[in-house]
Specification:
Radius of gyration: 21 Å
CATH architecture of the domain at 24-88 and 130-184: Beta Barrel
Distance between the termini: 60 Å
Shape: globular
CATH class of the domain at 24-88 and 130-184: Mainly Beta
Signal peptide: 1-17
Oligomer: single chain
Number of strands: 9
GO biological process, one term: cell-matrix adhesion
Order of helices and strands: HEEEEEEEEEH
GO molecular function: calcium ion binding
Number of helices: 2
Strand order of the largest sheet: 4-3-2-1-9-8-7-6-5
InterPro entries: Ependymin
Keywords: Signal
Largest sheet: 9 strands, antiparallel
CATH topology of the domain at 24-88 and 130-184: Lipocalin
Length: 191
């Protein structure tokens, strides 16, 4: 019996890792570097943004507060709240080590193919925390390539982060109403 177990050991440990699930809620800082090729002028345009991302899987919500550069060394904060429910089909690529020989951690890298677009995402092997993501392909006839680095990961989101600010167009000031499924899930029985 021990002989059979020893024969099966390489099969078990040699298999590709299963897709992991990150925390159902998290907050992270995100650096976005890359660019796109303008389809009309054929001029490459750089993309360089920082953002704070709030993710709530249970409510299928994502919020990104992005600092966008304007003229004369000024920045403007843009907030995008996304209500989504889309599954993905990830394919395992490899496990890699990040860091030096004495201080490193392992990441599993996955690839997600979409029509005319690809995503490559690396998550920490032990805790499934997002580490980096690369996207490339064509969106609305624009060739794009962007790399993302995740930093300051926190396994939670602020309580009312998905409530719309009063300044949003079409929003009733002072109501604090949510968006998407979150607003549907509110009940007269809950505060």
């Amino acid at each position: 019996m021990k002989f059979i177990a020893l024969l099966l050991l390489p099969l078990v440990f040699g298999a590709d890792p299963q897709p992991c699930c990150t925390r159902t809620k998290f907050t992270t800082s995100l650096v976005e570097l890359g660019g796109y090729l303008d389809p009309v002028s054929n001029i490459p345009t750089p993309v360089d943004f920082t953002a704070t991302v709030y993710y709530d899987y249970d409510n299928k919500m994502l919020r990104a507060d992005r600092d966008m550069p304007l003229a004369a060394d000024t920045m403007r904060r843009v907030t995008v709240i996304t209500d989504f429910n889309k599954a993905c089909n990830a394919t395992y690529i490899a496990t890699s080590k990040i860091g030096s020989a004495s201080r490193s951690f392992s990441v599993n890298t996955w690839k997600i193919a979409m029509p005319n677009f690809f995503i490559k995402m690396s998550m920490t092997k032990d805790h499934c925390i997002p580490f980096s993501e690369s996207t490339w392909g064509t969106v609305n006839k624009v060739v794009t390539e962007i790399n993302y680095m995740f930093m300051d990961f926190k396994p939670s989101v602020p309580e009312r982060i998905f409530d719309l600010p009063d300044a949003c167009n079409g929003h009733q000031p002072g109501t604090g109403a949510g968006v998407g499924r979150r607003s549907v899930m509110k009940s007269m029985f809950l505060p």
